[in-house]
Amino acid sequence: MKRVYLCIKRFLDIIFSIILLIILSPLLLIVSIAIKIDSKGPIIFKQERIGKDGKVFKIYKFRSMVVGAEKMGTGVYSGSKDSRVTKVGKFIRATSIDELPQLVNILKGEMSFIGPRPVLTYHPWKYEEYSEEQRKRFLVRPGITGLAQINGRKQVDWERRIQYDVQYVEKVGFLLDIKITFITIYKVIFMKDNVNTGVTVKKEKRDDIC
């Protein structure tokens, strides 16, 4: 039953990603122009993430930081007052507009609308360092939003986030996806839990990164 739903879910991902890309194309164009005017650098930020079955892919986001931000002295952690975030970047982060290019990732089959957020290849730790239980989060396509995102998002430590991800994989279904969708819409509208508030992974593993 779960396998059948995942096939239906993939079909819906394709349909809705195409529809949204068409409907939102004027907004995508406006944001692209604003980013280009606001600061030097590419419009789209690409970063390697771990996807389904541990395969690495490049996630797309609208660039919200200055070029070379990760190499600056303050590291790659980004908080609410990070000077590396551009003026346009602050707005698109607060409204989650920076995530919209991931509709292309969904269309390509690398992501889904709902699922565990795709993690960096080195954070919170490398793929090989996840326990067998934690690796269950990689059994489905990563999503733009998921169970962890509606339960605290960036305010929750990584161990707990992964527990939510595993829980999602074990209980994945239509009703759960609908619940996550509506709660996510609410959180986006009211800009809830979208700013890093502190270290969310144990020091012996990795320092917190955005």
What this model shows, in words?
The protein has 210 residues and is an alpha+beta fold. It has helices at 2-23, 25-38, 87-94, 102-107, 158-171, 174-189, and strands spanning 44-50, 56-62, 112-114, 119-120, 143-145. The strands form two sheets. It has a three-stranded antiparallel beta sheet. Strand 1 (44-50) and strand 2 (56-62) form a beta hairpin. Helix 2 (25-38) packs antiparallel against helix 3.
In short:
This protein has 210 residues and is of the alpha+beta class. It has 6 helices and 5 strands; from the N terminus they run H-H-E-E-H-H-E-E-E-H-H.
What's the arrangement of secondary structure elements?
Layout: H1 2-23, H2 25-38, E1 44-50, E2 56-62, H3 87-94, H4 102-107, E3 112-114, E4 119-120, E5 143-145, H5 158-171, H6 174-189
Parallel strand pairs: 3-5
Antiparallel strand pairs: 1-2, 1-4
Cα-based radius of gyration, to the nearest Å: 17 Å
What portion of residues belong to β-strands? 5-15%
Number of strands: 5
* Spatial order of the strands forming the largest sheet: 2-1-4
How far apart, in Å, are the first and last alpha carbons? 36 Å
Number of helices: 6
